[in-house]
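REQUEST
  id: r-88c1
  op: predict_structure
  target: Outer-membrane lipoprotein carrier protein
  payload:
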Amino acid sequence: MRILPLALLLASGAAFADDAADLKAKLAQFDSFSAHFSQKVTDSDGNLAMEAEGQMAVERPQKLYWHTQSPDETLLVSDGNTLWLYNPFVEQVTLYSPKEAVGRTPMLLLSSQDPLVWSQFTIKAKGGNYDITPKDEKDAYVTALTVKFSGDKVAGLVIHDASGQLNTVTFSGFEAPRSQDGQVQFSFTPPQGVAVDDQR
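RESPONSE
  id: r-88c1
  status: 200
  body:
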């Protein structure tokens, strides 16, 4: 078994720390941003499983709006204290703590400067992009996330999940600060009659 020298391990750890600081600094320049997104999901065999599109927005600290509009509507909203996942088709909304849900929804990193949240991940720069992996993969739904940049703009995400699916998200119409769209709300009130599953 090959054993890496301690100095090399320490240097590698320092490089990853620098990459994390670089990514945080790049994201910190945006108090908020919004975009239209298109999404393609392929299964573990590379077959196209789904295509979707919608609108997204983030705002510091830790606010997220992710509205998939077609083909099936879902809404993901965080106000920094509670994360709501609403599925109109099944008439259910699930509530999570954002800090605990970041392993399932690492898009929350886009609007977070919380050291505790960032400490859960290893971050490595790759070209102009950043690969993010959870340090504890045991219960992670998302096993790897790549944040892609085009210049200073966030261009998209590539998400690998535990089932082997590859989720490629491309942003267009990027605006920073975010467009003041009245439909974008960083809070959610469940419609009457909707089942509520509170997992906070």
